[in-house]
């Protein structure tokens, strides 16, 4: 996982955006997966976010009983990679993916996230954004649009929730493990790694 040295920080950029701009081009991951030895550990930031995540605005993909939340930015290259790697797991692992959009990578993220949320079919809009993703420009394929006040408020609320994680980056994937504690995965995992991660799902 990459971190930003102090001299690289832009004083006009919020901490989430600064971390995301650096992390977006990295393919790394962090797993917080409690085992039997730490079943009684105090709640982590991931546990707190998992408890609060019903307050978020998300886009549902899949009808499975196993719910997985994913914070993403429409322009994030690692999010795009994760989106592609998750395709085969939705049906095979009985998943219900809940994509939580945020606008933190760059100035055009807000307009693209708004276009997805305000589309007649947000799930289809998300798919269009990813299928037409420009890997050279690191830009989602959907056209930007001016967000409504309500949509911008929802996106900012999603961002505040993301900021509650110890390292607020995208993509961040979150779900409850078999023991009820949160499992947090950050970055774009390979299909092989995802298969191992989803073994923690109840």
In short:
By secondary structure, the protein is α+β, with helices and mostly antiparallel strands. The chain has helices spanning 15-23, 45-52, 77-86, 89-92, 109-117, 122-131, 149-162, 191-197, and strands at residues 31-32, 59-61, 66-72, 95-101, 172-176, 182-186.
Shape: globular
For the largest sheet, list the strands in their spatial order. 1-6-5-3-4-2
**CATH-level-2 architecture:** 3-Layer(aba) Sandwich
Number of strands: 6
Q: Nearest-angstrom radius of gyration?
A: 16 Å
Please give the CATH class. Alpha Beta
Order of helices and strands: HEHEEHHEHHHEEH
Q: Name the structural class.
A: alpha+beta
The percentage helix is 25-40%
How much strand?
A: 5-15%
CATH fold title: Glutaredoxin
Q: Quickly count the helices.
A: 8
Tell me the number of structural domains.
1
Q: List the uncertain runs.
A: 1-29, 33-37
- Specify the CATH homologous superfamily: Glutaredoxin
Word description of this protein:
The protein is α+β, with helices and mostly antiparallel strands and 202 residues long. It contains eight helices and six strands. The chain has one domain: 3-Layer(aba) Sandwich (Glutaredoxin), CATH 3.40.30. It has helices at 15-23, 45-52, 77-86, 89-92, 109-117, 122-131, 149-162, 191-197, and strands at 31-32, 59-61, 66-72, 95-101, 172-176, 182-186. The protein is globular. The model is unreliable at 1-29 and 33-37 (pLDDT under 50).
């Amino acid at each position: 996982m990459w971190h930003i040295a102090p001299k690289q920080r832009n004083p006009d950029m919020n901490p989430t955006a600064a971390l995301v701009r650096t992390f977006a081009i990295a393919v790394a991951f962090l797993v917080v997966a409690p085992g039997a030895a730490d079943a009684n550990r105090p709640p982590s930031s991931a546990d707190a976010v998992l408890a609060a995540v019903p307050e978020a605005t998300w886009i549902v993909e899949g009808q499975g009983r196993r719910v997985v939340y994913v914070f993403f930015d429409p322009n994030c290259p690692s999010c795009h990679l994760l989106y592609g790697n998750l395709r085969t797991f939705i049906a095979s692992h009985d998943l219900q993916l809940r994509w939580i959009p945020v606008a933190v990578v760059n100035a055009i993220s807000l307009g693209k996230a708004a276009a997805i949320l305000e589309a007649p079919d947000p799930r289809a809009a998300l798919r269009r954004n990813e299928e037409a993703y420009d890997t050279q420009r690191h830009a989602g394929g959907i056209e930007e649009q001016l967000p409504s006040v309500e949509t911008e408020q929802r996106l900012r609320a999603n961002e505040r929730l993301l900021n509650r994680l110890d390292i607020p980056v995208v993509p961040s994937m979150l779900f409850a493990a078999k023991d009820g504690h949160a499992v947090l995965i950050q970055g774009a995992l390979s299909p092989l790694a995802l298969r191992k991660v989803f073994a923690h799902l109840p």
